[in-house]
Amino acid sequence: MSMFQYDFMDNAFAAASIVALVAGLVGYFLVLRAQTFAGHALAHVGFTGATGAVLIGVSPLWGLVSVTIAGGILMGFLGEKLAHRDVAIGIVLSMSLGLGLLFLHFFTAYATQVTALLFGNVLGVDLPTLRALAVLGLVSMAGLAVISRPLLFASLQPELAEAKGLRLRLLSVLFLAIVGLATAECAQIVGVLLVFTLMVGPAAAAQKITSRLFAGLTLAVLFALIEAWLGLTLAFYSNWPSSFWITALSSLIYVLCLLAASGRTRQHAVGA
Amino acid sequence: MMQADKAAACHGLRIELGGRVVLEHVSFAIEQGEFVGLLGPNGAGKTSLLRVMLGLLAPAAGQVEILGGSPAARRSAIGYVPQIRTNPAGLSLSARDFVAAAAGGSRWGLPILSKSDRADVEQALDLVGGAALADRPLGSLSGGERQRLLLAQALLGRPRLLLLDEPLVNLDPHRQRDVVELVQKLQRQYKLAVLFSAHDLNPLLGAMDRVLYLGGGQAVIGNVGEVINGPVLTRLYGSPIEVMHAGARIFVVPGAQP
Question: Which secondary structure element, helix H or strand E, spans residue B196, and what is its range?
């Protein structure tokens, strides 16, 4: 019996494909800029947004999206001020999760929504959500396409980029807004707690095994797609949660790339 | 003050950082094709002066002209080698992609290089002897090799003035000589004006035409012999300074209190 006989599986595959594409591309730059923590943090504050939206009767996706984008913009503006403030950041993040929990407490009818928000519910994606994901995915990829060239320059050589007239703060704000959007999308598939797995895992694995920019971007997308598709397939046949399979595959691919990379350096050392 | 024939001209500059005066009454001009060493102890204001010349820091007083225009208007004519970062991003990227990121990097859009941009990148890599490094990841390169890549980035777009911020920091003496010789070769080959900052003048002896010395919040410019001597530096610092010669090397040391 094919899993594609079910509409919910079709939707799940379509949603996971869109999100994997966005996460792979955005994640590549996130890893390159060593800002992976931002993705994690935005997902946490997004939880407050999603639960707050449920409380006031709005779709959790829109609560998630607006709060993660706003959070990204704020992070971009604060910039350097946030560096080395890990305690303050940690307190804000746990506060966000706590607040989200409180919102849910007031809305006990939606108890299942907690797990869905925290760990994702890709099998529950309906057609309107799929359409929303497609539009949001297009917006974030278009945004990334516009800023990717100066973003790369500013990430690698900020002083030189500034001297050539680039506005570093503006770029950082725009990029983190895009990260916020991508985070909200990822959360639909794997949940706010596991955003790291789709956004950072594939991109970090890709950067382990290639030093070329376009090969890296392609591999990041490819890994994310494989993890999403294979994760869904395994979930369908095993009846285990898809988020579990996606995290397991993400870790597996990362470890394999790590091994491949260390094998390559050893070869270099012997050859030299 | 219009000095279009000069590579750079500063007149009566005062530079303040957070309300504190770093440099005052700074006036000098750099001729086209001239190699000027920017010397002075750490914290003397070398980086601040370079930032003013790049248009990144507005002077509290005075004017700066680069090739007869404002720093912002001459942006594309200035090549800049910033201080090497201790914790750079993109260590997994290849040297070629690292250099290429600076080629037209301030334009919006996808990071896809035109044919001429690609040719520029290869040429810049060749000029700094970096062709053999091109496919290696940044993280596997030594400090001296990375310094070459920064120089390659600065050469993109054929600048006429090259500003280098402490490129010799953390390099052993042998590599320091390589970098200075490379910059000197480029200066001669392309009639580049060079302002090369360093806190030790010895690696630059023989390469620089003149020295711009910062100290005690002031600046003095001239030939090495005119500037690096006890009376001039003592006047600059307002406290006794001795200049000692050991073979071909020169040392600036605090003098004995009278």
Answer: strand B193-198
Q: Are B109 and A148 a contacting pair at CB < 8 A?
A: yes
- Give the pTM: 0.92
Q: How far apart are the CA of A172 and the nearest CA of chain B, in angstroms? A: 14
Token pair 């001296």 in the structure block, residue: B144
CATH class given for the domain over A3-193: mainly alpha
Q: A60 vs chain B: nearest CA distance in angstroms?
A: 33
Q: What tens digit of pLDDT does each residue of B77-117 get?
A: 999 999 988 778 888 999 999 999 999 888 999 999 999 99
Q: Which helix (H) or strand (E) holds B63?
A: strand B61-66
How close does chain B come to A201, measured CA to CA in Å? 15
- Please give the backbone phi and psi of residue A266, each rounded to the nearest 5 degrees, phi first: -65, -40
- Sequence-distant (6+) residues with CB within 8 A of A146 are B108, B109
Q: Which helix (H) or strand (E) holds B39?
A: strand B35-39
Structural contact between residues B92 and B138, judged by C-beta atoms closer than 8 angstroms: yes
Q: Are B6 and B45 in contact (CB under 8 A)?
A: no
Kindly give the residue spans of alpha helices, DSSP state H, lying in chain B.
Answer: 46-53, 95-100, 115-127, 143-155, 173-190, 224-227, 230-237
Phi/psi of residue A51, nearest 5 degrees: -70, -35
Residues in B touching A33 (Cβ below 8 Å): 89
For residue B153, give the nearest of A149, A160, A165 by CB distance: A160
Domains and CATH numbers, chain B: 6-227 (3.40.50.300)
Provide the ipTM. 0.92
**Maximum Cα interatomic distance, chain B, rounded to a whole number of Å:** 66
What is the interface size between A and B, counted as CB pairs within 8 Å? 102
Domain-wise residue ranges, chain A: 3-193
d(CA A17, CA B64): 54
